[in-house]
Amino acid sequence: MPVEFLGIAATGDGSETTPRSTAAFDRDYTLRLARAHEDHGWDRVLFAYGAGSPEPAAAAAFLASHLDRLQILLAHRPNVSYPTFAAKTFATLDQISDGRLTVHFITGGSDHEQQREGDFLSKDERYERTREYIGIVKKAWTSREPFDHEGAHYRFNDFVSDVFPVQQPRPGVSFGGSSDAAYAAGGAEADVYCLWGEPLARTAEQIERVKEAARAAGRTDVPRIQVAFRPIIAPTEELAWEKAHRTVAAIKARRESGDLVRRGRPLGATAPENTGSQRLIEIAEAGERYDRALWTPTAAATGGAGNSNALVGTPETVAEALLDYYDLGVDILSARGYHLLDDAIDFGRHVIPIVREEVAKRDAAKAAAVAERAERDRHQLIAVQA
């Protein structure tokens, strides 16, 4: 199966290790970073969502109007707009990008972050709303006839859109989460299910949970799987580990100075509410190194903040680690360094080509094995008939 690479479409140059030197939305930096991804083998970039951050759909439209190939993953929280309005926004953006849009629906794992924009539902209620929301958006994308809706969270009559996506029947739907409610909602509705980087055994368990949820929802297919990491690469193993320890020291220094505030958590909060972050902390407490290259102190230093487990080593080591996840069934690999621009270029130059070449070899070997079995079966059938 083909492998895809997802990077970050940051609108400013800050990270956990480095204070931002640009505006929150810097046109030149946004375009420069996106071009670095497009020019170095990446397939798409994520426009993330934060309560006080620049509006990602507008930033994505800006990017789509300047670049021709790079695909867009747009993060969206259902609490910030009505689903019929959102469906029109997404369809318009798919038109602007000529069919390069996937939408990542975020239910929200932090009550505090959600309440910043007026969302006071409980976590379980948010998942119920997200599932209803996605269903409405899908129908608005595909229905040419007016339709009514009356659900637990939304009610309207006689809606039909006048703008439809370029992609037919619709753009892709991306979803993430590690709770039972997340598996149920994403297993039912997602085309892509997103996970944070965990050890291989735990990732395999999560993939099986997603498949079980899809089957429970009556699906005959299953979502594609995406896994996210923070790669730390250097020409030698020794240099990579030196870089990794400098990275953690920089994160801790910013956090201790108060310069780095954990998004979504109020000041003074010690534990995350969302299951995914809780899992990252649990894994970090159990050990620093897993499998071929997974390293947890970056996650521990941020308090399990989102995509935060690292892959450390030479480009060859990191590529081999990513291929281990590919062999589990992961075909979308998300990566974001700590120096956004330079790391996107280095990863694209030195890691992506190795992974793509090895995936092509694996796929060719599988195809040859299938053809060989088919030929053997054909000869056995001829022998039986004779």
Give the N-to-C terminal Cα separation: 38 Å
**Topology as a string of helices (H) and strands (E):** EHEHEHEHHEEEHEHEHHEEHEHEHH
Strand order of the largest sheet: 1-2-3-4-7-8-9-13
Average pLDDT score: 94
Q: What is the quaternary state of this protein?
A: single chain
Low-pLDDT sequence parts: 264-269
Q: Please state the overall shape, judged from the principal axes of the Cα atoms.
A: globular
Structural domain tally: 1
Fraction of residues in β-strands: 15-25%
CATH homologous superfamily descriptor: Luciferase-like domain
Folded structure, characterized:
With 386 residues, the protein is an alpha/beta fold. The protein has one domain: Luciferase-like domain (TIM Barrel, Alpha-Beta Barrel). It has helices spanning 27-39, 56-64, 83-96, 111-115, 123-142, 180-189, 200-216, 237-256, 275-286, 297-301, 315-328, 340-350, 352-385; strands at residues 4-8, 44-47, 71-76, 101-105, 147-150, 155-159, 172-176, 192-196, 224-233, 289-290, 294-295, 310-313, 330-335. An eight-stranded parallel barrel has the order 1-2-3-4-7-8-9-13, surrounded by eight helices. Strands 5-6 form a two-stranded antiparallel ribbon. β10 and β11 form a beta hairpin. α1 packs parallel to α12 (340-350). The two termini are 38 Å apart. Residues 264-269 have low confidence and may be disordered.
